[in-house]
């Protein structure tokens, strides 16, 4: 990609550009913001470093690329962490600057910045990039600062200290000194006082005089003044004010003509610096495509749409799908548009909006149309509609048409409050895969961390890693762990549930390697985390493997983790993986408690808080549930799980009986369920409509018998058609798989 590099003069912005080149990008322009008054060294800004701005003008000559500069007219007017367009804010100066760069060099598609740990700066750069249709590159983001400083020095960054403002740093002693000479001292200050060794906390600022980017010349500082801003005895503040400097050519003398040498004309002196003007008080917005609301309720009602909704009041799931595929349009975008509109109308009916959505499952019939699906998706779910953060998302291809459904199927998890906390990093970095657009890496709500589906993407390149499905899974798990660490937890000790989506393209041997890799990775990471964090209690996660036709980017696997991210200050209510109570549940439909009932059940319980379970109804279990069908199909060669409706009715009743038992044994009710999914394979040869009707009848019967469920016009469960599913990657042969997640409502939970 062709990149414009944001430069402040500091080491971080220069090294970020070096990383861009390392990953195959090309720096074609520089952009810099400076004070209106040349005599000022520093502004009161959380966004921009301006100390040393007098020297930055020469970077164009040093690198041989054009420099665009703008004088900062705005100030800090938008004080919240997340940023939205605010006339007169200093961020709008960056917008005007980059908009002009893009106008003059249309081939530019990305922006490089040196953000390491500041969400404040990163979010503002991402906001500007999003509005201009540019990609944010932040290759230093979340990197270990000690290693980063060492790496910068080793790879040729020659930078001097131009500002100090921390205990242990003295303006008279340290200003003008090279960071290479102070590296060990900075690490000592970190040990003594906890400073950021890269200066991310404002402890110091730097000015780069030379680096591998400077192909033409290096900077030499001839004269400077030390200006003391504060003589505080503990942490004095001072800056270096450049008075004179010159360029020292790196070019070989023989490559220049005699005339050029005599006249002092060098190629580095011929690169122009462009000043960008404009008023930051004006609304600096670009045109964006809005949702076409030209069709109304009547149009939505004209489609054969179906809705399901779990019964919990404060956290619940809504699903929407076309029931009859022959009456839907042949266009994915039209199907998705209508489904999203239907969900939006449902949210409005509940007094909610897309801002209340925590997670979205986007199921489509053909992954080749993923880009088209995204085009429609981003017109409904926007940053403006989600003030507290956009929801996390997973996108899966399902065999929708084979079971009589439309081309789009949406499932959303909704909360009736605004207490969610979202991690949404749009910048491409070395940390974890970026989410460029209105979907986030993870959403935390009521101690449950809902993580976006993770592919085996190499974060800095955003390409699938090589090495096959097992390597992809390992990378996906590493990406998941990077996200989990931002919430002070780990997938090895805090995971409740892993859904591992496997592509239909992978072989049996590759499935074996996937399962082995998951087990090995989690065990090794758990040992490391237990040793380093001294944790005594950890969760034992449950795992479900789901075989699907295809995944984004033709990936082999996609990992969807759900974590229990309890705050360290909270009192843990206790982790359990197994039976948590001896309470006796009732018997229904002739099912009495038998030891074999729990053979194919995985559970993860946090007492008094959450209950997660996976029920795998295998062929073997079907023989026990329906003993009359044992051996019935063996002689004619028909697979036993091609079931009659009578047998399927019996299986549905057993599932509900067992779910009820799990809930009651662990002191949960049906009203605590936030989602209830039934995965069924297409080899059942049953339509979605008939299966849905069957389960609805059984639930109604159960509600009538027990009075434990409040039945409404919408079913409380979601049916998901898949190729196969199971608790093992090598034997995804369940007849029906049930995924239950229930959570208690408690007012004293932290977010």
TrEMBL record:
Ranges where the Diphthamide synthase domain occurs: 1-229
CDD domains in the cross-refs: AANH_PF0828-like, eu_AANH_C_2
Recorded superkingdom: Eukaryota
UniProt keyword list: Ligase
Molecular function GO terms recorded: diphthine-ammonia ligase activity
GO biological process, one term: protein histidyl modification to diphthamide
This enzyme's EC code(s): 6.3.1.14
UniProt-listed InterPro entries: Diphthami_syn_dom (IPR002761), DPH6/MJ0570 (IPR030662), Rossmann-like_a/b/a_fold (IPR014729), RutC-like_sf (IPR035959), YjgF/YER057c/UK114 (IPR006175)
Catalytic activity: diphthine-[translation elongation factor 2] + NH4(+) + ATP = diphthamide-[translation elongation factor 2] + AMP + diphosphate + H(+)
Keyword Ligase attached: yes
Pfam families in the record: Diphthami_syn_2 (PF01902), Ribonuc_L-PSP (PF01042)
Name of the protein in question: Diphthine--ammonia ligase
């Amino acid at each position: 990609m062709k990149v414009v590099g944001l430069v402040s003069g500091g080491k971080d912005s220069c090294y970020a550009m070096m990383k861009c080149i390392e990953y195959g990008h090309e720096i074609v322009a520089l952009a810099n913001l400076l004070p209106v008054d040349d005599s000022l060294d520093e502004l009161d800004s959380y966004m921009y470093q301006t100390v040393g701005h007098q020297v930055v003008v020469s970077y164009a000559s040093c690198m041989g690329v054009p420099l665009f500069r703008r004088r900062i007219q705005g100030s800090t007017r938008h004080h919240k962490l997340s940023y939205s367009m605010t006339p007169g804010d200093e961020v709008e100066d960056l917008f005007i600057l980059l908009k002009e760069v893009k106008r003059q060099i249309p081939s530019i598609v990305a922006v490089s910045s040196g953000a390491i740990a500041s969400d404040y700066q990163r979010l503002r750069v991402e906001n500007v990039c999003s509005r201009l249709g540019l990609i944010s590159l932040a290759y230093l983001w979340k990197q270990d600062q000690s290693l980063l400083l060492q790496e910068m020095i080793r790879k040729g960054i020659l930078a001097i200290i131009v500002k100090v403002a921390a205990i242990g740093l003295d303006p008279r002693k340290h200003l003008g000194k090279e960071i290479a000479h102070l590296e060990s001292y900075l690490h000592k200050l970190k040990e003594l006082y906890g400073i950021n060794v890269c200066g991310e906390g404002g402890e110091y600022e730097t000015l780069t005089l030379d680096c591998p980017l400077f192909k033409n010349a290096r900077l030499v500082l001839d004269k400077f003044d030390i200006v003391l801003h504060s003589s505080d005895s503990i942490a004095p503040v001072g800056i270096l004010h450049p008075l004179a400097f010159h360029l020292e050519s790196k070019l070989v003398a023989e490559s220049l003509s005699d005339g050029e040498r005599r006249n002092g004309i060098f190629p580095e002196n011929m690169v122009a610096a462009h000043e960008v003007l404009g008023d930051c008080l004006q609304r600096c917005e670009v045109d964006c495509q809005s949702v076409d609301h030209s069709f109304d309720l009547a149009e939505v009602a004209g489609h054969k749409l179906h809705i399901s909704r779990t019964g919990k009041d404060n956290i619940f799931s809504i699903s929407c799908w076309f029931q009859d595929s022959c009456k839907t349009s042949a266009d994915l975008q039209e199907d998705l548009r209508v489904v999203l509109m239907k969900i939006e109308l449902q949210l409005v009916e509940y007094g909610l909006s897309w801002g209340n959505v925590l997670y979205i499952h986007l199921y489509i019939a053909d992954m080749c149309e993923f880009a088209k699906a995204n085009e429609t998706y981003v017109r409904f779910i926007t940053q403006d509609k989600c003030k507290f953060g956009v929801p996390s998302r997973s996108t899966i291809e399902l065999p929708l048409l084979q079971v009589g459904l439309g081309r789009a199927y949406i499932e959303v998890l909704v909360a009736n409050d605004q207490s969610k906390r979202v991690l949404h990093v749009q910048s491409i970095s070395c940390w974890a895969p970026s989410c460029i657009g209105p979907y986030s890496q993870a959403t935390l709500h009521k101690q449950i961390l809902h993580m976006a589906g993770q592919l085996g993407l190499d974060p800095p390149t955003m390409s699938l890693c090589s090495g096959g499905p097992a390597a992809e899974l390992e990378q996906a798990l590493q990406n998941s762990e990077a996200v989990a660490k931002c919430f002070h937890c780990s997938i090895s000790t805090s995971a409740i549930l892993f859904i591992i989506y496997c592509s239909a393209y992978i072989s049996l041997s590759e499935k074996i390697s996937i399962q082995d890799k998951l087990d090995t990775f989690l065990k090794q990471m758990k040992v490391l985390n237990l040793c380093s964090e001294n944790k005594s209690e950890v969760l034992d996660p449950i795992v479900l493997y789901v075989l699907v036709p295809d995944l984004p980017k033709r990936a082999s696997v996609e990992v969807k983790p759900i974590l229990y991210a309890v705050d360290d200050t909270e009192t843990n209510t206790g982790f359990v993986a197994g039976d948590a109570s001896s309470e006796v549940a009732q018997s229904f439909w002739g099912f009495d408690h038998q030891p074999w009932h729990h053979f194919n059940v995985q559970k993860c319980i946090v007492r008094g808080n959450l209950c997660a379970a996976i029920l795998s109804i295998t062929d073997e279990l079907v023989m026990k549930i329906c003993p009359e069908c044992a051996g019935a199909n063996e002689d004619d060669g028909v697979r036993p799980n091609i079931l009659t409706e009578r047998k399927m009715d019996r299986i549905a009743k057993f599932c509900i009986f067992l779910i009820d038992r799990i809930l009651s044994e662990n002191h949960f009710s049906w009203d605590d369920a936030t989602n209830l999914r039934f995965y069924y394979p297409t080899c059942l040869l049953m339509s979605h409509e008939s299966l849905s009707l069957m389960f609805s009848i059984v639930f109604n019967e159960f509600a009538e018998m027990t009075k434990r469920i409040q039945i409404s016009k919408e079913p409380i469960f979601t049916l998901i058609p898949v190729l196969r599913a199971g608790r093992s990657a090598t034997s995804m042969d369940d007849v029906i798989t049930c995924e239950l997640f229930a959570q208690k409502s408690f007012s004293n939970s932290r977010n």
